[in-house]
Amino acid sequence: MPTEVMTRVHTRDSAARSGIIVSAAPSIEAWNRFVAAQGASGYHAWEWRGVFERAFGHDTIYLAALRDGQIEGVLPLVLIDSWLFGRGLFSLPFLNYGGVVAEGEAAARALLAEASRLAKDRGCRSLELRHTTQQFAELPGRQHKVAMLLPLADESTQMWNALDRKVRNQIRKAQKSELSAECGGIELLDDFYGVFARNMRDLGTPVYGRRLFAEVLTTFPNRARIHVVRRAGAAIAAGITYRTRSTLEVPWASSLREHNSLCPNHLLYWSIIEHAIGERCTTLDFGRSTPDEGTFKFKEQWGATPRPYHWEYYLPSGRPLPNTSPSNPKFNLAIAGWKKLPLGLATWLGPSIVRCIP
Asked: What is the mean pLDDT of the chain?
């Protein structure tokens, strides 16, 4: 790393005399211009800082690497003081993407150095960076999850003809069962959340609070949409999509298992694909999956292909890599018990627990 690189935190008014300075108070406008120019993930937008703070109450630290006052790299961080897993810094928790975005190695290294110092000074067990490619070869990492990406055709008819015949038949079955699909905004939040909360309880997973989704929809009204599948007017499947440039991502989706025989999930995703094509998107990001598990195979049948995530870690105390995944065997008893909770109780307890599970 060049000797002129400094990792002291400066305020916005500090003048950069030479080299790279890491600032914890960058210009919001400059931050958003930089992440847009760099093609960063949609979650690097500054507005997500407020979502984390308002929906979860977590402290955030947004670092920018500056040279002569110009941003050359950014790193959004969320501090989680978890009674389950201890204290940690995450970029970014609860989401699929985050980490360092930088124009060059000097800026990236300066940001890593400052984030590592913060993790150590604040007694964190780990610093977790959710990258899409390996950025720091010396850091331990995990590639236990993948994104499932589907290239989209220019027209719905072309996309329909490209689908596997079995998938088309399942979409037709949903349509013949008189299921209907619609797309909207925050006015559909109750429909989405009713399905989502129940499905999370049935999976044995604490549910996010309704406020998270309300914050996302109000903060990003032109990028976040709700998709709902109904049977006789009642919501039985629903998802939230989030657009970044020409990619439409499905970070959250659920369906009610008692209706699985009617294939509501297939109609849900087909309606999302039609919406994406109508918005001139070129890629559908089905979201995070574990290779060879059920959701992976569901997404694979649509023609989606895996792209590994590269989650990289700084471990101040030489601890083993953290494992907060529900697949961790030590959670088996808790998952089994959660499935038996009354829905109302699970929905009430869930947000206070899941805010501690990044």
From this structure: 91
